[in-house]
Amino acid sequence: MTETAKNTNEEMQDATPAEQVAAEEAAQEDIAQDGASEADEMIASLQAENAELKDRMLRTAAEAENIRRRAKKDVEDLGQLRDCQICPRSSGCGRQFASRP
After folding, report:
1. Within-domain flag for 59
2. Are 97 and 81 in contact (CB under 8 A)?
3. Is residue 47 situated within a structural domain?
4. Alpha carbons 84 and 99: distance in angstroms, whole number
5. Which pLDDT tens digit goes with each residue over 2-47?
6. Based on the structure, what is the number of domains in the chain?
7. pTM for this predicted structure
8. Residue 14, in any domain of the structure
C-alpha cells in the first residue's frame, strides 16, 4: 500500500461516520467525473470518425456520379463520331459503330 493510501485509511478510521460517508461520496463523484471525461473523449473521437467516414462516403458518391456522366458523354461522342464525315461509311468504321447502341 502506498503512503498516501495508508494516510487516507488512517484518516478514515479516525473520522466520524458522517465524514466517512462524505469522503466516500466525494470519491465516487471523482470516479464518476473521470468516467464522464473518458466518455466525453470517446464521444468526441467517434464524432470525428463519423465526420471523416461521411466525408469519404460523399466523395465516393460524387466520384461515381462523375464516372457515370463521363461514360454517358463518351457514348454520345461515339455516336457523333459514327455519324461524322471524317469516318466514311465505306471504310467499315460505320459498320463497326452501327453495331453499338
Report:
1. yes
2. yes
3. yes
4. 16
5. 555 445 555 555 667 777 777 777 777 777 677 778 888 999 999 9
6. 1
7. 0.46
8. no
